[in-house]
Structure formats: structure tokens, C-alpha cells
Amino acid sequence: MFYGTLVWDPWLIVVQIVCLQCLYYLTLGFFLSILVGTRVSRMSLVYFFDYATLTISTVTGWCVIASFMLSALAGAGYLLLLIERAKKCLDFSATVYIVHLFICIFYGGWPSSITWWVVNGTGIAVMALLGEYLCIRRELKEIPITRLRSNV
């Protein structure tokens, strides 16, 4: 893809943010259902948005932490597919986690657990840095040029 003059398209940005957020939560739900759903009797939104579930004192808490980290890894792949530019990865990663912070505040109050902050801070770093790495690798690929040259 050729990147010429950058045209500011707010609708594209909003759609990318919504798609990235939805994919993040779908992936988080998938990993939570696999890792945590087998350990608890009933899944709920508590595991998504309540800071108290991210704890290192229980095995279920470690499974929730693992789900968040795996979702951050998948988020880097989503950045590669949806955003395609290394210089935008940090912006979109930060947006995903800021929206998540606001939803968590609305759902369960201000996250007062240090574990929640460490997990989400690590998640944003993993998502942004791995996303940038993947996008840079794609941007630096050689452009295949085929020449149709007749013998003169």
C-alpha cells in the first residue's frame, strides 16, 4: 500500500477505534471463557471490568491475568490488520486501554489494585510495541516490481 499525502478522515478513525475495541473484547472473552470459564461456576462481566479479579493470590486470578496478556498479543495482530501504520500503533493501543479504564471506572469504581495497573500497563506496552514491530516489518518489505521489457 502506498502512503502518500495523509488525508485526515475522522470517520475512518472512529470505525478503526470501534473495530479494535470490539475485537479486543471478543478476544478477551474468548480467552476468559477458556481459561477462567473452566474454573468458575458462572462467567460474568466481573472478570472483564472489575479490578478485584486481577489478583496474584488465586489461580483464577492468574488465569484472568493470562487472558488479558493473550488479548494484548492478539491486539497487536489486530493493529497490523486494521491500522497498518507503525506510527499509529501507540495511539490506537492507548485508546483501547483508556476506553477500558473508563468502562472499569463506570462498572466498579477507580481501580485501586496495583496488580490491575501493572497488568494493563504491561498490556498496553505489549500491544503497542509488538504492533509497531509487526507493522514496521510489513512496511519494510520489498515492493515487488515486475518489468515487462521487450528485447530491443
From TrEMBL:
What's the protein's topology in the membrane?
A: Multi-pass membrane protein
Q: What is its main location?
A: Golgi
Q: Which GO terms describe its cellular component?
A: cytosol; Golgi membrane; trans-Golgi network
Pfam families named among the record's database cross-references: SYS1
Where in the cell does this protein reside?
Golgi apparatus membrane
Residue ranges annotated as transmembrane are 12-36, 56-82, 89-108, 114-136
A biological-process GO annotation: Golgi to endosome transport
Top-level taxon of origin:
Eukaryota
Which keywords does UniProt give here? Golgi apparatus, Membrane, Protein transport, Transmembrane, Transmembrane helix, Transport
Q: Which family does it belong to?
A: Belongs to the SYS1 family.
Tell me what this protein is called.
Protein SYS1 homolog
What organism does the record attribute this protein to?
Answer: Prunus avium (Cherry)
Q: Which gene encodes it?
A: LOC110769468
